[in-house]
Write a structure and sequence with these properties.
Length: 231
């Protein structure tokens, strides 16, 4: 049975963990400090219940430091805060990421000036978080995908429109992308709705979808939507 490591304990990490367990995977989530995370009774920045509450109800999920999670994981999912993803993955340690696929679903959003957040200038337009992760960890296979939608849809596309909407993917390694597509098929994504945009530089465009995504969400107050490419 494959072990998947999730770097990140927020809603996205929890959503992946629950789904992957139902699909029969072993899951280990990574955090900066395990005892602090499990002791905390503070709601997250979106007002969701503390991680400890979710963790108590999901007993098959394991938890460790970022490095312990990355050591155990055969595939790594980066579901950490985008502005701190390089730090989180650095704590996971390059040697534990070497030769492994990093599925990057994070967005480099800066919330420091309130809502809506903006893309971090150094990680947008002529750069992206996906590229920065690939540059920082050249021995890993970074595959960017699923970052353009609410996490409930990432693992359950059939929730809306019969699953007939578009998910983008990019990365430098064809085999890594094929492995990630196979995993997404298990989530319910059909191949005709997975659009391969090429190498990791396509992450610039994928992350740039966020400003319009956020605007639509604030207008409709509904995150369960997606785009479909029609031609
Ligand atoms: N919410 C969605 O539906 C959605 C959709 C698309 C993409 N995304 C992206 O998915 C990612 C995860 O989102 P989320 O809302 O689940 O969680 P989040 O609050 O953005 O990130 C939580 C994780 O980031 C880690 N973190 C925070 N500051 C850190 C630092 N200074 N150094 C290292 N790690 C740090 C936390 O570590 P600890 O565990 O130690 O606290 C935690 O594991 C984000 O990049 C977001 O943009 C979210």
């Amino acid at each position: 049975m494959k072990t998947i490591a999730i770097i990140g304990t927020g809603t996205v990490g929890q959503t992946f963990a629950s789904k992957l367990i139902t699909l029969g995977y072993e899951v280990i989530m990574g955090t900066r400090n395990v005892s602090d995370k499990l002791a905390s009774t503070v709601k997250d920045k979106y007002g969701n219940p503390p991680f400890s509450q979710w963790f108590a109800a999901n007993k098959r999920v394991k938890i460790g430091t970022f490095a312990e999670a990355a050591t155990s994981g055969e595939i790594i999912i980066n579901a950490s805060e985008g502005t701190n993803s390089i730090n989180a993955l650095t704590l996971a340690d390059a040697k534990n990421l070497s030769g492994k696929i990093i599925i990057d679903v994070a967005n480099p959003l800066d919330f420091s000036r309130g809502m809506p957040p903006c893309l971090v200038p150094e990680l947008s337009n002529t750069n992206s978080l996906g590229e920065e992760i690939q540059k920082t960890f050249p021995d890993a296979y970074v595959v960017k995908t699923l970052n353009t939608m609410w996490c409930g849809l990432m693992i359950n596309p059939n929730m809306i429109g019969g699953g007939d909407h578009t998910n983008y993917i990019c990365g430098n390694d064809a085999n890594a992308k094929a492995t990630v597509i196979a995993l997404m098929n298990e989530f319910g994504w059909r191949n005709e709705n997975i659009l391969d945009l090429g190498d990791i530089t396509a992450a610039r465009g994928m992350e740039a979808i966020l400003p319009i995504w956020l605007r639509i969400w604030s207008t409709t107050q509904n995150g369960a939507f997606n785009f479909k490419i029609v031609s």
